[in-house]
Write a structure and sequence with these properties.
Layout: H1 3-27, E1 33-35, E2 41-43, H2 44-60, E3 66-68, H3 76-79, E4 84-92, H4 94-99, E5 105-112, E6 115-122, E7 129-133, E8 138-141, E9 149-150, E10 160-164, H5 171-178, E11 183-187, H6 192-198, E12 204-207, H7 213-225, E13 229-232, E14 251-254, H8 261-265
Parallel strand pairs: 3-4, 10-11, 10-12
Antiparallel strand pairs: 1-2, 4-5, 5-6, 6-7, 7-8, 8-9, 12-14, 13-14
Helix pairs in contact: 1-2, 6-7
C-alpha cells in the first residue's frame, strides 16, 4: 500500500457518495432512456454522475487520466503508455436503474501497472459502500455514518452459493455450473455480485459473455483485498489496459482461492 493510495481512498469514497446523490436526484423522478450505439441504455443519471466523478478526480489527482464508460476513451497509442489511471463506471447497472430495483452501483478504481490498487463500489439507493486499497484490506460501510466492517471471503465448504446476472442460467453457463455439483444460484445486478462474495455470502460468480473493464476493476480490488480473486477461464489473474479493446475476457470471481475453480468448471476440450 502506497501513501497515495491510502490518502486517496476516503476522498474517492466522498466523490462516490456525491455521484450517488446526483443519481438519486434523477432516480426520484421520471427520466428518459436513450440507447447508445451498442444498444445499451444511458440516462441523465449516468451523465450527471460522470460529471461529478470527473471533476472530483481531476481535483484530487490532476495528472492522473480517467477512462470511463460515459466518456470517450483515449486511443490505445496513448493509453499503452499509462502506468496509472482511474477506471470508472459512473452508473453500473443502468438496466437495473431503469427497472428501479435498486441493484446499481457507482464504481471507481485506480489502476496501476495493469492491476486495480484502489476500489470503491457504492450502492446509491441504500448508501452501502465497499472500499479497498491494495495491501490495506477491504471494508464495508452500510451508511455514511455507520462503522466500517472488515470484509472477508469464506471457505468453499458445503453447499456452494453462486451469484450471477438474471440471464445466468442459460446455455453454456448452466453447463459449466452443473460441473460444480450441488449448488444454489441467485441473481444480482451490477458489481453487487462481487460484493456478496467479498462479504462471505456467496462463493462464485461465473461470467460468460462481454463485460467492460470499468464493470469489474473497482469490485475486483474489493474482492481481492477481502481474500478472493478474479480470474480468466485459464485461471490467470485479471489485468487491465493490456490491449486496444476494453472488453474483458470471460471470468470467474471467487471467494476461496485454495480451490482451482477453472479446473472444476472448464473442460480443456470445451470449445470457446
Amino acid at each position: 500500500m502506497t501513501m497515495a493510495h491510502a490518502d486517496w481512498l476516503d476522498p474517492v469514497c466522498a466523490i462516490a457518495r456525491e455521484a450517488a446523490d446526483a443519481i438519486l436526484a434523477i432516480y426520484a423522478h421520471d427520466f428518459e432512456v436513450v440507447r447508445k450505439d451498442d444498444d445499451s441504455p444511458v440516462t441523465a443519471a449516468d451523465l450527471a454522475a460522470q460529471r461529478v466523478i470527473a471533476e472530483g478526480l481531476h481535483t484530487l489527482a490532476p495528472g492522473v487520466p480517467v477512462i470511463s464508460e460515459e466518456a470517450l476513451a483515449a486511443p490505445w497509442s496513448e493509453r499503452r503508455t499509462w502506468r496509472r489511471y482511474w477506471l470508472v463506471d459512473p452508473l453500473d447497472g443502468t438496466r437495473e436503474f431503469v427497472k428501479r430495483n435498486g441493484e446499481f452501483t457507482v464504481n471507481i478504481a485506480l489502476v496501476e501497472d495493469h492491476r486495480p490498487v484502489l476500489g470503491v463500489v457504492l450502492v446509491p439507493v441504500s448508501g452501502d459502500l465497499y472500499a479497498a486499497v491494495s495491501g490495506g484490506g477491504a471494508w464495508r460501510q452500510r451508511t455514511a455514518d455507520a462503522p466500517r466492517e472488515v470484509l472477508a471471503t469464506r471457505p468453499a465448504n458445503g453447499l456452494l452459493m453462486v451469484t450471477g446476472s438474471r440471464s445466468y442460467g442459460v446455455g453454456r453457463t448452466m453447463t459449466l455450473l452443473d460441473r460444480l455439483g450441488p449448488h444454489e444460484t441467485f441473481a444480482l445486478g451490477s458489481s453487487l455480485k462481487f460484493c456478496v462474495i467479498a462479504r462471505g455470502e456467496a462463493d462464485l460468480y461465473l461470467r460468460l459473455g462481454a463485460t467492460s473493464e470499468w464493470d469489474t476493476a473497482a469490485a475486483q480490488c474489493v474482492l481481492e483485498e477481502a481474500g478472493g480473486a478474479v480470474l480468466d477461464l485459464a485461471g490467470r489473474p485479471f489485468r487491465y489496459n493490456t490491449r486496444d479493446s476494453l472488453i474483458n475476457p470471460e471470468f470467474i470471481a471467487c471467494g476461496d482461492t485454495t480451490v482451482d475453480w477453472a479446473a472444476r468448471l472448464i473442460d480443456p476440450d470445451d470449445a470457446t
